[in-house]
Write a structure and sequence with these properties.
heterotrimer; A mainly alpha (about 300); B mainly alpha (about 290); C alpha/beta (about 425); A: about 300 residues; mainly alpha; MetI-like fold; two-stranded antiparallel sheet; about 0% strand; B: about 290 residues; 15 helices
């Protein structure tokens, strides 16, 4: 290794750290410090509102193993994530491909699919409470028109969570669509043209050209979508408060309940930390499998 | 590099004759699928708008029908009288734009480092950035409240801004886009003697504008609608934001005040909707397949 | 239990060390507060009923500030009851509570556990509080014979009914007993083949544990004591079995949401509804039919639990502030203000004298429904004032839901929930003792 090369590498390293510094300062204060504190809290009996804390050791973590509701909540969260993410990303991808053109009216379509993201969750939740009303709600009316049986939706512990999943698809497909649209803009169009001239059909173009080309973004969307979806809180909070029969209680809501409603900061911290370990594992797995398949245009 | 593509957008004249009607059909076919789907997606919005023009008694009256008897615009002024929405609007604008400006700076710098530089600890640091997205927000509320209080920032506008200036999410998003930019471009610029900063500014940023805009829209929407954190860290009406005004109409033990809640929703969403319509046009027009060879 | 107190001083030091550079940058932060004639009070309140209430409260505060030299109250809207409690508790944790706040009465033991409340018994005794306040309302702020707040906006659940639906079914009066309730609900349920057109009854979800406590009281049981819950008693099990009977008979919805249930009633999807008296004004004005209000039917006796809450005063503040806070709390609950507040919201006025005000008498003539809840209040008491009440409420709601969904038998559900909640209460109490 020549000295000048080593010097260049050193310079690059210093530059990198300098570029990361602004972010790291804020992350240190508002993310890492609270996480460290929450590890500390999880080993104590901490009552919201009381400055005194008492050492407990692993008790909060042992409670967690015994907590029937925790396991139910974990299952609900997994169900929500595993349904919402694939479905809304699939919808988003199809929308993005369909809307990535100069066709007349595309601007209106794009706005039509994106606007749900902008509706404040308080209001969106309330509107869907109305839409799902068993007696007079438009969704049940539509089901009747189609000759399908009516459902009790949010009043039924079997259907409440799927109802929230459907609503989330409405709310988030536009969000993923926007990100994927941005990615499609980066795809060189000559690739499409070449494929079209070679007589590759639309479906094959999607599978063999579009998807590989936007794979970095798809990868991003899958990871971010998963991270966001297991943090779903707003709709549960506004619409069902976790009910009926805990069927819509999900992890973040449960953490909020424990930390703020029950003042049990120690236990809430233990939940959050257990969750973090679990998610880190999950993300690691995704990075090792999906991440390997991602094709970056900029890299060879 | 843009002009390369202009030619590609033009159909090949030799093959253009035959599929003209097919093209027409494809376009119409697309509309045939998209139109009902869009209407389905829009139906809650239509309900919001119509309800905001009804009287309280009309909302649930089965006999009253879909349309209001008479367009009742008075819900809007009466919503605005519930809380100082003008002040809330200004505060919301200040909070969201400051957050966005801060984020754009921090994520651009960090994403470039992650996408294009090699340095020890890169993967570990990247995971550390993602921690922000992974850790449940309600587990950090308390500590951040205490920290802000030690800084003397409780009940100030910065309290709603500083926790969000760094964005692991944005860094990740932009890193993915930077990595999509062909390295030939930066290699060429490097040969011309450009430094990293100038390559970032002149080569990378212009190419990832769609991503920046997408991130900007998402960031603005998120913080525009944030409710729990502003509610916790602010007390004075003079520094509060729009969702708190909306909460006054929704968080009711007595059942919501539907017409005014929907009027409030319309008021809160309109600026965003307008912004989106403007930006999404730019989104398409200026970046229509800016293909690069 | 082995518990060692952790090193707080070091934590504090660390935190302040971190913050020092920021604090010193802020002008004015380090300047000591000057002695000032005006006492500034913060008052945190929830908005329980929608919209204009905020305007009314702001108006009342402005009035107070204009008429009271030397006191300036800042009213802080703090979200729902839950949000308000969380905001106050978070502020308590950093040693800066607001001067007064308005939580739900169930939180009494929670705040007492944090040693946060000023005992106002003596002031109240030297005033007309004990004479003029309606006893049941005052009791919601009493623990061990001491008074910790002034009841401000009490409510109880009542039975709302759709008068048109009653007329169609040929029913001329609201049910008075559980058995009549079942019969009436059956008669009001409309089915078209398998398809349900209208429920007979919906019990407002999200607060159905509150209604359930009413059912226990109607069956002769106050289902809690200061340090435990008693849901496993036969009276409570019988109450839940009765709910299950109504669900099985197909005339009561097995679950609902708080907002959804009010909508269902207004839209005619249910003929009867258990909801808060606080909803009276909204239901009356928004329903396209005439709304009737009745007592919740009885078993052994009438009974209800009180929602709403008292204005509480913080212990951790200067005497000058405490005195000003008392003046303010006293003013908010005076005869005229209570009468006006009650008319505007449907909450119950806490003073006997308020109900005799001419405006109030006129109002009751015009809206006789408003009086029902007032009369029912005579049979009511505080709602679930145990430590860890929030967790207790969620456990009970879950037990009820699972029973009504047919997942578990009433007795098993309530026995489990009772054991679970009493374990939690013991845990919280153990902490308070150590």
């Amino acid at each position: 290794m020549s000295p000048s090369f080593a010097r260049a590498r050193r310079k690059e390293m210093l530059l990198a750290y300098a570029l990361l510094l602004p972010s790291l300062v804020f992350l240190a204060i508002f993310t890492y410090w609270p996480i460290l504190r929450s590890v500390w809290f999880s080993l104590h009996d901490v009552l919201l509102g009381d400055p005194d804390i008492y050492w407990l050791g692993a008790e909060n973590y042992l409670r967690l193993l015994d907590d029937r509701l925790f396991w139910k909540v974990l299952g609900n969260t997994a169900f929500y994530t595993l349904t919402t993410i694939p479905l809304s990303i699939a919808v988003a991808l199809l929308l993005a491909v369909a809307l990535d053109s100069k066709l007349r009216g595309m601007a209106i379509y794009r706005s039509a699919f994106f606007y749900p993201v902008m509706i404040p969750s308080v209001a969106a939740g309330m509107v869907w409470v109305f839409l799902y009303a068993p007696g007079y709600g438009p969704i049940n009316e539509a089901l009747t028109t189609l000759g399908l049986p009516r459902l009790d939706w949010l009043y039924d512990s079997q259907w409440a969570l799927p109802a929230i999943v459907i609503m989330s698809i409405w709310k988030y497909s536009g969000y993923f669509m926007l990100i994927l649209l941005a990615a499609l803009k980066l795809v060189p169009s000559d690739l499409y043209e070449a494929a079209r001239l070679d007589g590759v059909s639309g479906w094959h173009r999607l599978l063999h050209i579009t998807i590989p080309l936007v794979s970095p973004t798809l990868y991003f969307v899958i990871i971010i979508g998963t991270l966001h979806s297991y943090q779903i809180f707003d709709y549960v909070y506004v619409m069902t408060q976790g009910g009926p029969a805990d069927s819509t209680n999900v992890l973040t809501f449960y953490i909020y309940q424990n930390g703020f409603q029950y003042q049990d900061i120690g236990y809430a911290s233990a939940l959050a930390n257990a969750l973090l370990v679990f998610v880190l594992g999950l993300i690691g797995l995704v990075a090792l499998t999906l991440g390997r398949k991602v094709h970056y245009l900029g890299e060879r | 590099m843009t002009d390369v593509i202009q030619t590609a957008a033009m159909p090949d004249t030799a093959t253009a004759r035959r599929p003209r009607w097919r093209k027409q059909l494809r376009e119409n076919g697309l509309h045939l699928i998209m139109l009902p789907l869009a209407l389905l997606w829009l139906s809650p919005l239509i309900w919001i708008l119509i309800t905001s023009l009804k009287t309280n008694a009309e909302v649930f009256d089965q006999a009253a029908g879909f349309w209001p008897d008479k367009l009742n615009f008075s819900n809007y002024p009466s919503t605005l009288s519930v809380a100082p929405f003008g002040t809330y609007l200004i505060n919301s604008v200040i909070v969201t734009t400051t957050i966005l400006a801060g984020q754009l700076i921090t994520i651009t710098l960090a994403a470039y480092a992650f996408a294009r530089l090699t340095f020890p600890g890169k993967n570990l640091l990247f995971t550390l950035f993602l921690l922000q997205v992974m850790f449940p927000i309600y587990a950090i509320f308390l500590t951040n409240f205490v920290t802000l209080r030690e800084m003397g920032l409780i009940n100030t506008i910065p309290a709603m801004i500083v926790p969000f200036v760094a964005s692991g999410y944005g860094t990740f998003m932009l890193r993915q886009s930077f990595r999509q930019v062909p390295s030939e471009l930066s290699d060429a610029a490097r040969l011309d003697g450009c430094g990293h900063m100038s390559i970032l500014w002149h080569v990378y940023l212009p190419l990832v504008k769609p991503t920046l805009i997408a991130f900007g829209i998402i960031s603005v929407v998120t913080h525009w609608n944030d409710y729990m954190w502003p509610l916790l860290v602010t007390n004075s009406e003079s520094i509060r934001t729009l969702p708190i005004g909306l909460g006054l109409l929704a968080k009711a033990d007595s059942g919501a005040d539907w017409p005014r809640l929907m009027a409030g929703t319309t008021i809160v969403v309109s600026p965003l909707l307008l912004l989106f319509v403007i930006f999404q046009r730019r989104f398409i027009d200026s970046f229509m397949h800016t293909g690069v060879k | 239990m082995k518990s060692t107190k952790s090193n707080i001083t070091r934590r504090r030091l660390l935190a302040s060390g971190l913050a020092a550079p920021f604090v010193s940058m802020m002008p004015g932060v380090l300047t000591p507060a000057r002695a000032n004639e005006t006492v500034k009070l913060q008052f945190m309140y929830p908005v329980g009923v929608s919209g204009d209430i905020n305007t009314i409260i702001s108006g009342m505060i402005a009035d107070f500030n204009a008429t009271h030299d030397g006191i300036e109250v800042e009213a802080i809207y703090a979200g729902s009851y839950d949000n308000t409690e969380q905001k106050v508790i978070t502020a308590l944790g950093v040693g800066e509570p607001p001067a007064l706040w308005l939580p739900i009465n169930s939180s009494l033991q929670t705040f007492l556990g944090l040693d946060a409340l000023e005992d106002v018994t003596e002031q109240a005794k030297s005033d007309d509080i004990y004479d003029d306040f309606i006893g049941g309302f005052l009791d919601t702020a009493v623990s061990d014979g001491r008074l910790y707040g002034l009841s401000y906006q009490p409510s109880t659940p009542v039975l709302y009914y759709n008068k048109d639906a009653y007329a169609q079914a040929g029913i001329d009066k609201a049910p008075e007993t559980w058995d009549e309730l079942l019969e009436t609900a059956k008669a009001l349920t409309i089915r078209d083949g398998d398809e349900l057109k209208r429920w007979g009854l919906i019990i407002g979800g999200g607060w159905h544990d509150w209604m359930f406590e009413g059912y226990c009281r109607q069956n002769g049981l106050v289902p809690w004591e200061k340090d435990k819950v008693l849901w496993d008693r036969p009276e409570a099990i019988e109450a839940l079995s009765f709910w299950k009977t109504m669900v099985d008979a197909g005339c009561m919805a097995p679950a609902s949401t708080w907002q959804g249930s009010a909508n269902d009633f207004m839209a005619g999807s249910t003929a009867m509804l258990y909801h808060s008296t606080g909803s009276l004004t909204n239901l009356r004005k928004s329903s396209p039919f005439e709304v009737g209000v009745a007592f919740m039917p009885k078993k052994k006796q009438f009974g209800a639990s009180q929602g709403g809450g008292p204005i509480m005063i913080a212990k951790n503040q200067s005497d000058a502030k405490k005195e000003a806070a008392w003046t303010f709390a006293r003013w908010m609950t005076n005869t005229e203000n209570q009468a006006a507040w009650s008319r505007a919201t449907g909450y119950l006025a806490v003073r006997k004298s308020s109900w005799q005000q001419p405006e109030m008498v006129d109002y009751l003539k015009e809206v006789p429904q408003a009086e029902v809840a007032m009369k029912q209040a005579e049979f009511s008491g505080a709602f679930l004032q145990v430590p860890a009440y929030s967790r207790a409420r969620d456990s009970l709601k879950s037990a009820i839901d699972r029973t009504l969904a047919g997942e578990i038998a009433p007795e098993a559900a309530l026995t489990d929930a009772t054991a679970e909640v009493n374990r939690e209460i013991a845990r919280v109490l153990r902490r308070q003792k150590s």
